[in-house]
Each structure stands twice: as C-alpha cells, then as structure tokens.
Design goal:
alpha+beta; 4-stranded antiparallel β-sheet; 9 strands; 51% helix; globular; AcylCoA_DH/oxidase_NM_dom_sf
C-alpha cells in the first residue's frame, strides 16, 4: 500500500462505511457553504445567514447529532466527533455553533428536561429552526461556576430570574437559553424563552478570535418564568458540568480539524514555494517541522478516536475528556504556529487559513475549561488530592 501524506497512519481504516459517509457529507457541506466565504466573515467580524446555516446543519443531522429521538440523528460518538473535526477544519466558529446547540443546550434539555420541555424545544432545535444557547459563565465566575451570582427566587408558583452571563455563543440569535442560576435549593437550570420580558442578549463586539461566530452577553432583569421552566432532572453543579464534558469531547476532535487544515496548508505551500532554487519542502528544517506537525496531528486524532470508542461503550470518564481537551487543543495551537512559520509572511494573510485557526484556537484553549483547570482535574485524578481550593 502506498504512503498517504495526509493520512500517514492509515486512520481511515478505523472508519466504518457509515463513519466515512458522515465525514464526507459534512466535509462537502463545509467546502461548499463555509470555506469560500469564511475569510470574509472573519475579517468583517460577523456570521451572516446564521439561521440559514443552522437549518442546513439541521438537515444534515448535525444538531444534537448523538442524541436519540425528538428528530435527532442518534449518531455514534465517533460520527459526531468526525463531524466536529470537519466543521472546525472550516472554522472554529461553525463548530462552536453546532457544539453549543447540540452538546450544551440540547443535551441539557434532553438529559435533564421534562417530557414537555423536550417536546417543546428539541424537534425545532434538531431541525435548526430554533437556535439555543447555554448560560453558565459570568463576568466574575468563569473557572469557578459555583460562585455564580445569577439567581432565581420563587414567587408563588413562578420563578424570578436575575443575573448576567458572558461569552455566550449563539446568544443574540437564540430562541431558548439554558441558564444556570443559584436558588434556595442549589444550582438549577432553566429553559428560558428569549422573548421573555426582561431578557436581552447584546452581542459582544471587538473580538480578535472566533470572529465568524455570534457571541453575546445574557442579561436577565426580573425575568418571570413559569414553574415548568426549571429543568427538573438535576440540582447542583453536576448538571452544567456534565453538559460541559459532553461538549469538550467535541473539542477534542474539532481542534484536530483546525490543526489538519493548517498542516495541509503548510504541506502544500512547502511543495510549491521556491527559495534558493528549489521548493522549501526540500530543506531539512522545513521537513523537520512537517514531520513534527504530522506526529502531533495524527496522535491527536488517534486519541480522539479512542475517547470516542469509550464514549460509545459508555466507559468514558470526565478526566479522560480533560486529557483529550488539554492535549489536543494545546498541540493544535502549536501546529498552527509552526505552520505559520512555514508560510512565512504569507502565514498572516487571510488568503491562507493558518492565522485564522491559530487565533480561534486561543479561545478554544480557554472556553469549556482552561489549561489550568484541566491540569488540575488530571492532577486530582492522578494523586487523589484536590488542588482547586
């Protein structure tokens, strides 16, 4: 068998025909609907047509992809991961749209919501007709969500919700926000219709990362909610943290998509860019960079596959997701930075995807658990000692 530079370990052999079909379908959609336009979206700092994109992603079965019922595709964890990889190979903002919709907002309702809540929200969200967001992070509570100030008080049979959430993907275009708040009973989740009086979602501007993505603040000023807005299936931080673990799994795969796009751009450039009378790919220093990038990229994809098989078997632990998120995002950023050096000055141009992926990954490195938090999760798992406090 011949050696394939873009698949040096033959990882395609790990895929079933169904897996490959999912990957190829999402890759073709991204090539048609995202790649021709995303540099312009990024430069302008907007994601135009997000609702149309959401409906198309719903038609692909990419929203709530690994959930069962309610119009969801019921795909395997590996198939969902492959979709995340292909989406982030186009842009992290597109993968974030899908992750927040499916792995955070839909997952929370699917796992912890009442049957009425599931019937009300999930079919429309799976189809992309309704967009959802997930409100956990606050201006003063990021890595320490237990310190959140958003609170909900009972008023008769209703709830009165007050607070602020920050850095919320999809916020200003959402129909429903899953908002986590302090209550007298502990932290509870609420399915909040975004047309509720007192709810607003001003968009956050002036970002230098995830520019082709809608990012908002959520503002709740005396939002009155009926009793059936609360998610009945969970009390405490285990609710939002379990959702985050599900979403982090998608990042394990998605970050490798950004890395792959940058590596392949560098590999193609090295074969064609000539200096000193020959392609720069013929020089030892460039080949060393390409070899090191290929090593880390395909080790990361192998790790993602392994975690996906464990998730499908029902044996994946949150600490293992932290392992994957910490390693793969960190290595993806390094791949992007190395690819930029291969491209030289051209590497900072939006004519190539490398700098866009590198800046996007700076956000991916931080959200859904910073490097330090995942190091401490693993440190606790390794030693049995809690260093968080």
């Amino acid at each position: 068998m011949s050696f394939v530079p873009t698949d040096p370990l033959g990882l395609d052999e790990l895929l079933s025909p169904e897996d490959a079909a999912v990957r190829d379908t999402v890759r073709a959609w991204a090539a048609d609907r995202v790649l021709p336009y995303v540099a312009d979206w990024y430069e302008r700092g907007e994601l135009p047509g997000i609702r149309e994109l959401a409906r198309e992603l719903g038609a692909l079965g990419a929203l709530g992809m690994s959930l069962e019922g309610y119009g969801c595709a019921g795909a395997t964890a590996v198939q969902y991961g492959l979709a995340c990889l292909e989406l982030e190979a186009a842009d992290s903002g597109i993968r974030s749209l899908v992750s927040v919709q499916g792995s955070l907002a839909m997952y929370a309702i699917h796992r912890y919501g009442s049957e009425e809540q599931k019937q009300r929200w999930l079919p429309g969200m799976a189809a992309g007709e309704l967009i959802g967001c997930f409100g956990l992070t606050e201006p003063d509570a990021g890595s320490d969500p237990a310190a959140m100030r958003t609170h909900a008080k009972r008023d008769g049979t209703d709830w009165i919700l007050n607070g602020r959430k920050m850095w919320i993907t999809n916020g200003s275009v959402s129909s429903v926000a899953v908002v986590w708040a302090q209550t007298d009973e502990g932290i509870r989740g609420f399915a909040v219709p975004t047309d509720s009086a007192g709810f607003s979602a001003p968009e956050i501007k002036h970002k230098w990362s995830l520019r082709a993505s809608v990012t908002s603040e959520l503002v709740m000023d005396d939002v009155r909610l009926p009793a059936d807005a609360v998610l009945p299936g969970v009390v405490g931080l285990k609710g939002p943290l379990s959702c985050l673990s599900h979403a982090r799994y998608g990042i394990v795969w998605g970050s490798m998509g950004a890395a792959r796009a940058s590596f392949e751009a560098a590999l193609d450039y090295a074969r064609t860019r000539e200096q000193f009378g020959r392609p720069i790919g013929g020089f030892q220093l460039t080949q060393a960079k390409l070899a090191d990038m290929a090593l880390e990229l395909h080790k990361g994809i192998l790790l993602a596959h392994h975690l996906g098989r464990r998730m499908d078997a029902g044996t994946l632990r949150p600490e293992q997701v932290s392992f994957g998120k910490l390693n793969n995002v960190r290595e993806a950023i390094e791949i992007c930075r190395t690819a930029r050096t291969v491209l030289g000055a051209n590497g900072i141009s939006l004519e190539y995807p490398v700098m866009r992926h590198a800046t996007n990954l700076e956000s991916v490195l931080t959200y859904e658990g910073t490097v330090e938090m995942h190091q401490l999760v693993l440190g606790k798992a390794l030693t049995g000692l809690d260093a968080f406090r």
